[in-house]
Design goal:
Order of helices and strands: EEHEEHHHEEHEEHHEHEHHHH
Strand order of the largest sheet: 1-2-3-5-7-10
Helix content: 40-55%
Oligomer: single chain
Shape: globular
Low-confidence stretches: none
Bound molecules: acetoacetyl-coenzyme A
Structural class: alpha/beta
Length: 259
Amino acid sequence: MAYEHIQTRVEGDRVGIVTLNRPKQLNALNNQLMDEMGEALKAFDADPAIGCMIVTGSEKAFAAGADIGAMASYSFADVYKGDYITRNWETIRSVRKPVIAAVSGFALGGGCELAMMCDFIIAADNAKFGQPEIKLGIIPGAGGTQRLPRAVGKAKAMDLALTGRMMDATEAERAGLVSRVVPLDKLMEETLGAALTICGYSQVAVMAAKESVNRSFESGLSDGVMFERRLFHALFATSDQKEGMDAFVNKRPPQFKHQ
Ligand code: CAA
């Protein structure tokens, strides 16, 4: 399918990459871009050849937020009735294979929120994160006030949401928002390496791990631990569990069949 605001490609036969591509607007996120990204991720998710996905932007901007020009003239009734602007943003949450955000440059407002919707974030050393919506007379509208405190705690989330300041990659890693910081010219190599590592494991176990970690944000500890235990038990029904453990015991590399 031909897309206008994103580019897609497959690397290493198994990693689906979505590159946001509105360079003149610093990848500002409008409905068309978000629809296209949702379609592309759903297609990769449904493709048995694909084991992991990467969402990335340009060197200068992962995404500078929701498209301000597109929403500037909307009234309350417009945004409320149309569930604007974030109605089509949660598609990424329904994707069951892992999605890694490879972030360089600005990840602001909806751009930061989009990165946080991914399963984890690898940042280039020039990355800048922030929720500057307060400067526009609004607040984050795609989960920023909910996911940011879960990632970095209340103090920093309040600081970013109330002052609108940006956080550099070092601070973001220290705060727990990003899993690793790498030199800009190594961002895609490092992220692809992580994605291919994930693709090498049992896809059933990978999907279960993602589902279980995500469950920790939705449930209390006892329920979450019980959920994890049931998934753990269920994995003993897979041939990949037999293969992984037999390979370890016999000191050979495993050959997972993803079943
Ligand atoms: N929407 C629309 N256009 C945007 C944009 C956005 N979020 N961010 C940048 N652009 C456009 C600029 O208007 C400019 O276009 P022109 O060349 O046509 O003037 C172009 O991208 C380049 O931007 P700048 O000239 O401003 O570049 P800079 O390097 O001087 O500054 C920046 C970069 C600090 C990121 C600055 O562009 C900026 O502050 N952008 C807005 C960030 C923002 O407020 N994001 C939150 C949006 S609201 C939101 O996201 C709601 C939500 O929760 C879902």
